[in-house]
Design a protein that fits this description.
Layout (H helix, E strand, L loop, with lengths): L6 H6 L8 H13 L4 H9 L17 E3 L6 H17 L5 E11 L9 E7 L14 E7 L4 H11 L17 H8 L8 H6 L10 E7 L5 E7 L2 H22 L15 H32 L5 E6 L1 E5 L5 E5 L1 E3 L11 E4 L7 E6 L8 E3 L8 H11 L9 H11 L4 E4 L16 H10 L3 E14 L17
Parallel strand pairs: 1-2, 14-15
Antiparallel strand pairs: 2-3, 3-9, 4-6, 4-7, 5-6, 5-15, 8-9, 10-13, 11-12, 12-15
Helix pairs in contact: 2-3, 5-9, 8-9
């Protein structure tokens, strides 16, 4: 009779049943097939058993650097919520340090990294860079070009809203980037999407902003967007992979804070996938800038870019996760400059800052002005201020709000439907954010892009089929 190892044999040997049994049984029975003893087979099976689970850290075990102060009652509520969610997150076993930027605001249930949050960890946490991986800023300078001409050119070449470019109008990323996708197990099946969504900008708070340099008066284009559908697909896979490790290593850890151990095959592949997504996103920005230049028959004099939803590895071996926070430490990437872009709102200058590598910011600077209210709450508040009825803001309400908040600016919405949740009043007071950047020593402002106008997606869902009432026959 051929001897085999069964699941019951493992249980009888004192092993706790789990998903790992399947792999353990294959390996154990291979030992028997090769002439090994039952004792040898059980010893081999035991090597597949997960190690002891890691408990959550105690509250206050991890230092949280608070680079934010409340300027009014709304901000006090915001700061309390941001602090509470970061304290819960910091109990994750592999987290070593955390910081909160002046533009911080909650972005999910308690324990979810806030926008404007920085977390240093021994591992990679997909939930801490969010689905909008590598959301980033890029600037190009266009000498001798009028701002209106530049805005018109960008409007003619970019794409906002859902989906990508239709067949026949698609633009391919570089061969090197597509090759990196093909070679990575997390990205091999998103190549078609990577081509379809290339040279597009998404929706929400993403924008193409045109202004003039305060120092020279030259026209500048600044774009803000992330990795679109390719990044979202990678995020989904990363979260599933991280959750498998969470179930084995630390079931008490919140799902949003699950991690992928860096020294595993999954960790190495995911890290490589992040770098490929980063390169795709950088090319995505520059493709739009280059198409605008081509349309104008103009030359770009200077440009740089930087991301604020990403993971960076420092020489200390830790992974620094910036969710709405921009790296400001030396050598954070091979293509890094010492400058960062900090937008405030469409009616305010975009700050060009030099990072200070402040210890209290874990080497990061803010990425913008942030919000005190959710989009829905802000729209409701606008309705109360402008006398909207129970049906919400009317076209007249929206026209009045637009006229007040965008006076003197050329503000456009790609869908032709304004999105009032993205107007200046939706964001924190810009002067307060600037003051706090200086107060906490997070960055030094060296120049500004004075606003002329911008393009955003707008309310592209306004006339969506699911918003239309069914007509009865």
């Amino acid at each position: 009779m051929i001897e085999i190892v069964s699941g019951q044999d493992l249980i009888n040997a004192g092993m706790s049943q789990g998903k790992w049994f399947r792999h353990a049984l294959v390996a154990a029975n291979k030992v028997l097939e090769q002439g090994g003893s039952m004792a040898d087979a059980l010893a081999t099976a035991r090597t597949f058993a997960p190690g002891p689970t890691l408990p959550l850290k105690l509250e206050n075990d991890v230092e949280i650097h608070m680079n934010i102060r409340a300027e009014d009652e709304f901000e006090r509520d915001n700061v309390e919520k941001v602090n509470a969610t970061m304290r819960a997150l910091a109990r994750t076993p592999v987290v070593k340090a955390a910081a909160i930027m002046p533009d911080a605001c909650p972005s999910g249930p308690v324990g979810t990294i806030p926008v404007g949050g920085v977390v240093a960890s021994e591992a990679i946490h997909p939930g801490m860079h969010s689905a909008d991986i590598c959301c980033s800023m890029a600037i190009s300078i266009f000498p001798g070009v009028a701002p209106k001409d530049l805005l018109d050119a960008v409007h003619g070449v970019t794409h906002f809203g859902p989906g990508g470019r239709p067949r026949g109008a698609q633009i391919r990323p570089s061969d090197a980037t597509l090759s990196a996708f093909r070679e990575n197990p997390f990205l091999t099946d998103v190549i078609a999407v990577a081509i379809e969504h290339f040279a597009t900008q998404g929706d929400g708070n993403h924008f193409a902003y045109v202004g003039q340099m305060k120092s020279t008066g030259e026209a500048a284009l600044v774009t803000h967007h992330g990795s679109r559908a390719p990044g979202a697909r990678l995020y989904d896979k990363g979260m599933k992979t991280a959750n498998r490790y969470r179930e084995q290593l630390s079931p008490e850890t919140l799902k949003d804070n699950a991690w992928i151990p860096a020294d595993t095959e999954d960790g190495e592949a995911y890290w490589a996938a992040l770098q490929a997504i980063r390169q795709w996103t950088k090319e995505n920005h520059l493709a739009i800038h280059d198409m605008a230049a081509e349309k104008l028959s103009a030359k770009v004099a200077d440009r740089f870019w930087n991301e604020h939803n990403f993971v960076f590895r420092k020489s200390d071996g830790l992974f620094y996760h910036g969710k709405g926070a921009t790296p400001a430490f030396d050598g954070w990437a091979e293509d890094a400059t010492d400058l960062t872009l900090i937008p405030l709102n469409m009616a305010e200058p975009i700050l060009i800052a030099r990072g200070s590598n402040a210890a209290n910011g874990l080497g990061f600077s803010p990425h913008g002005a942030g919000r005190n209210f959710s989009r829905t709450s802000h729209i409701r508040r606008l309705g109360e201020e402008h006398g909207a009825d129970s049906r919400g803001l009317s076209p007249n309400n929206i026209a009045a709000i637009m006229a007040k908040e965008t006076e003197g600016l050329d503000v456009r919405f790609f869908s032709n439907a304004p999105d009032v949740s993205e107007l200046p009043s939706a964001y924190k007071n810009a002067a307060n954010v600037r003051a706090q950047i200086e107060h906490y020593g997070l960055a030094e402002v060296v120049d500004e892009v004075i606003p002329y106008g911008c393009i955003m997606a707008g309310d592209w869902q306004k006339d969506a089929p699911w918003r239309k009432k069914k007509v009865r026959a």
